[in-house]
């Protein structure tokens, strides 16, 4: 999914550049040829010069026309819409977390960084997937706490978005967050990105990110809540945030004060990286409030396998700290999930759910 989205951005940027490069090449005047028999060319050479001058004039006119009118038709927008209902959270609480833009990489699967400039309405967004990076500047066009936040790009790939927040009537506090994003594209690419399959893929990415957003909000609100508060709120930092990487893959471990414990594996998990991550998380557990139970999430979606030598450290961690885990969700490709199921049975760890769908795992 990130590949498809990144390919879309790359193709769009490339298609915007090609016409400008072609026109630039046409506008360049041909170099003067030095030929020993140049005088014998006579009238033919004069005709070539006239045609070259005409081509140069046509290219200049095309460049002027291109700069005077937009390179992309105003109707060529690729829309992506999704929504999520977050139980136990008010619209004001969700808006407070969402409107603090530097928080966004914590739930976005593609964003690397969001930095707000000296002008609080202008921010720089950086995206990275499959080793490719893109950046653009955006301006907040409307902010109505705690109901609405809208923005549009002012540089880079044209895009705009709108996030709305509304409380869901009922006995239990809940809010619905709807996110609509639009990307402008060249007309030549529109038939490709209007396909139902790509639309579903983009919506799936957005939907999963919104589910992650809901979990971030629940983690951040904690016990000190104020439903009337809608000022931007920075997400609290975890007690433990440890990352290890080698030539075969990487692993990250997170532990939050409310007992949320998260492990993310990318590539191949070796014994050393696994052991160091588990030791880092275990070292932070004494900082939890007395009697605090933990909820674990093991994300194997980007994983490709695990060394048999890593089983020992995992089993020991579960034997030493498994009693503190109220529940654990494991999500990833089915072969890796089956292997995780085998490890859980070795450690005799109860309350472990196994999933191939990330949304189901997060909700569980």
Structural description of this entry:
With 364 residues, the chain is of the alpha+beta class. It is 37% helix and 30% strand. It has helices at 2-27, 43-68, 91-98, 190-193, 196-221, 271-284, 311-321, 334-347, 358-363, and strands at 77-87, 111-116, 122-129, 132-144, 148-153, 159-167, 174-184, 240-245, 249-255, 260-269, 294-306, 325-331, 352-355. It has a 7-stranded antiparallel sheet. The chain is globular. The chain starts with a helix and ends with a helix.
Poorly predicted spans: 1-7, 10-74
Tell me the helix content: 25-40%
Measure the end-to-end span. Answer: 23 Å
Strand content: 25-35%
Give the class from helix and strand content and strand pairing: alpha+beta
Strand arrangement, largest sheet? Answer: 1-7-6-5-4-3-2
Number of helical elements? 9
Rounded mean pLDDT is 77
How do the SSEs run, as a string of H and E? HHEHEEEEEEHHEEEHEHEHEH
Query: Can you count the beta strands?
Result: 13
The major sheet is characterized as: 7 strands, antiparallel
Radius of gyration: 27 Å
Net shape: globular
């Amino acid at each position: 999914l990130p590949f498809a989205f990144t390919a879309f951005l790359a193709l769009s940027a490339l298609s915007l550049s090609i016409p400008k490069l072609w026109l630039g090449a046409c506008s360049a005047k041909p170099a003067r040829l030095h030929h020993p028999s140049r005088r014998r060319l006579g009238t033919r050479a004069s005709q070539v010069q006239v045609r070259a001058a005409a081509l140069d004039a046509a290219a200049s006119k095309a460049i002027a026309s291109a700069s005077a009118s937009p390179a992309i038709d105003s109707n060529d927008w690729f829309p992506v819409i999704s929504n999520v209902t977050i139980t136990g959270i008010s619209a004001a609480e969700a808006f407070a977390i969402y409107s603090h833009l530097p928080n966004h990489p914590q739930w976005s699967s593609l964003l690397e960084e969001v930095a707000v400039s000296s002008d609080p309405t202008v921010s720089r967004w950086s995206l990275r997937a499959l080793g490719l990076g893109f950046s653009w500047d955006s301006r907040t066009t409307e902010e109505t706490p705690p109901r609405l936040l809208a923005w549009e790009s002012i540089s880079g790939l044209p895009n705009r978005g709108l996030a709305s927040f509304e409380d869901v009537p009922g006995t239990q506090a809940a809010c619905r967050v709807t996110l609509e994003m639009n990307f402008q594209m060249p007309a030549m690419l529109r038939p490709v990105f209007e396909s139902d399959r790509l639309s579903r893929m983009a919506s799936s990415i957005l939907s999963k990110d919104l589910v992650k957003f809901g979990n971030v909000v629940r983690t951040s609100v904690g016990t000190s809540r104020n439903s009337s508060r809608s000022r931007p709120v920075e997400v609290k930092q975890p007690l433990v945030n440890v990352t290890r990487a080698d030539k075969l893959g990487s692993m990250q471990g997170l532990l939050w004060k409310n007992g949320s414990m998260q492990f993310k594996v990318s590539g191949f998990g070796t014994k050393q990286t696994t052991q160091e991550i588990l030791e880092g998380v275990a070292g932070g557990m004494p900082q939890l409030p007395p009697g605090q139970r933990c909820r674990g999430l093991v994300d194997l979606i980007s994983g490709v396998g695990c060394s048999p030598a890593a089983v020992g450290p995992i089993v020991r961690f579960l034997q030493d700290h498994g009693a503190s885990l109220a529940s654990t969700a494991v999500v990833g490709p089915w072969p890796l999930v089956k292997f995780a199921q085998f490890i859980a049975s070795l450690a005799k760890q109860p309350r472990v759910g196994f999933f191939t769908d990330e949304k189901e795992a997060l909700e569980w």
